[in-house]
Design a protein that fits this description.
mainly alpha; 21 helices; DNA polymerase, domain 1; 3 domains; Serine Threonine Protein Phosphatase 5, Tetratricopeptide repeat; elongated
Length: 458
């Protein structure tokens, strides 16, 4: 079939025909437009292929800035980290910003989510980024951290490299901690490493599933042997976490108490700095509030807080607690209407006892840091304010003392619960003597009766 286009009047028609149509006798040739090629495409391909020389030439030709996104996407360093090209990363990291964010993604995240099949190269890239102060505890818009990417991809050496500086309890947008991502991909070595490091494997995600339940759903029975079972998991006693009885409010009056002194406040401090899961270590060691408020890094390590990131977080929380502004209005006082309410006065006294414990711990904290030259010399103004606060607190304590004495006027001379053990022993002796005479009298009466009966029969 001919490709020639013959459109028009019949060939045998007259030339002066009234035909008004068109006639194309030649083949129509249309030129195809060249496909669009992005100016940075060659640079992009050079990074993907690991061609350092071509990448450098293209950067010079385009006058390309090292932190500029390529083709509107990631930076050169991000692409090199993702593809696992160590030589390019080594050249770029000296010039680029290792903490540059593009759509909430950073180079360290791309390195931990690398497409490279060689875990040794990935570890080298991560070490290189860390040497150039790459941020570790950051997350993207999905809540994923570099550590989560490493756990998901099974980069055991990278996990071992980052594990001392990361938060085990960081969660993504689905409420999953790093161990969830290791379990999802059945990375046995990573899961074993996390469990040995003390990761809390009982925290559930937003759907309510625990790591053990996720492993069961996937049928990863080898992981079930590694994950802790509920019967081996230490559970903090409930009365450690809240005030339940009067002895919790006034532990120094009621000597017998299983809960460490004011441990409930300690739990509150840990919760406020997002390390509430660490409360179990202090519960096992039976650390009181006064002991907690003067802890240093060595004491925290002895308790069981192994990783420096958690120790530093707790130490900062202790410092913030001591730096919290204190004034007289924060102290409870006895109102005139409540002076006859013994329970109300007792609870106010308990509040003051707790404040005294805190003040004593704060003074010990300041004294220790002064001796170790970790704090500057206090100014005269600071000392004057401290003196004024103590005087004001002393006035409040004097008011409490007067109230307690006033209530004492209505109390019996002797405590109703007082037990005189000497009196108890004397009463027991008197009871024995009475019983002796009682039974002796009965025996004598029976004897006389028997004698009279015998005499009567005779």
């Amino acid at each position: 079939m001919s490709n020639r286009c013959n459109y028009g009047p019949p060939q045998d028609s007259d030339s002066d025909s009234s035909y008004d149509g068109f006639y194309f006798s030649d083949e129509v040739k249309r030129s195809k437009p060249a496909p669009y090629v992005h100016p940075e495409q060659k640079l992009y391909n050079a990074v993907l292929d690991g061609d350092l020389q071509t990448m450098q030439e293209e950067m010079r030709r385009l006058d390309f800035q090292v932190d500029q996104p390529v083709r509107g996407g990631p930076t050169l360093l991000m692409l090199a980290c993702h593809e696992g090209h160590y030589e390019i990363v080594k050249w770029l990291v000296k010039k680029a910003n290792v903490n540059k964010q593009v759509d909430s993604v950073m180079p360290l995240m791309m390195a931990c989510d690398s497409q490279s099949k060689d875990p040794y190269v990935v570890e080298k890239i991560v070490r290189l980024l860390l040497r150039h102060s790459a941020a570790v505890n950051v997350s993207d818009k999905f809540g994923m951290t570099p550590f989560m990417f490493a756990c998901r991809n099974g980069f055991t050496d990278v996990v071992r490299l980052l594990i001392k500086d990361v938060s085990f309890d960081a969660v993504d947008n689905q409420g999953c901690t790093p161990i969830f991502h290791a379990i999802e991909k059945n990375n046995v070595e990573v899961v074993k490493l996390l469990v040995e490091a003390g990761v809390n494997a009982t925290i559930a995600n937003k759907k309510g599933y625990t790591p053990t339940q996720v492993a069961e759903c996937h049928g990863y029975y080898d992981l079930l042997e590694i994950l802790p079972h509920p019967d081996t998991t230490y559970l903090v006693p409930t009365h450690y976490l809240g005030y339940n009885t009067l002895r919790d409010h006034i532990p120094r009056i009621f000597l017998k108490s299983d809960c460490p002194e004011y441990f409930q406040e300690l739990n509150g401090i840990l919760q406020s700095i997002s390390v509430g899961n660490m409360v179990q270590y202090f519960a096992i060691a039976r650390v009181s509030l006064a002991e907690f408020l003067i802890m240093d890094e060595q004491k925290l390590q002895e308790v069981g807080i192994e990783y420096p990131i958690y120790r530093q977080k707790i130490l900062k929380g202790i410092l913030d607690f001591h730096l919290h502004h204190w004034c007289n209005s924060s102290i409870a006082r006895v109102k005139d209407d409540d002076m006859d309410n013994f329970y109300e006065v007792l609870m106010i006294a308990a509040n003051h006892l707790q404040h005294l414990v805190v003040i004593q711990a704060a003074l010990r904290f300041v004294l220790r840091n002064q001796i170790e030259n970790k704090m500057g010399q206090p100014s005269e103004t600071n000392l004057a304010i401290l003196k004024t606060n103590f005087q004001g607190y002393g006035d409040v304590l004097n008011q409490i003392t007067r109230t307690v004495k006033y209530l004492g006027l209505f109390s019996p001379t002797q405590n109703p619960l007082f037990i005189d053990f000497n009196e108890i022993l004397a009463e027991r002796k008197r009871k024995k003597v009475r019983n002796y005479f009682k039974y002796t009298t009965i025996i004598l009466g029976i004897s006389v009766f028997i004698c009279l009966k015998c005499k009567w029969f005779s």
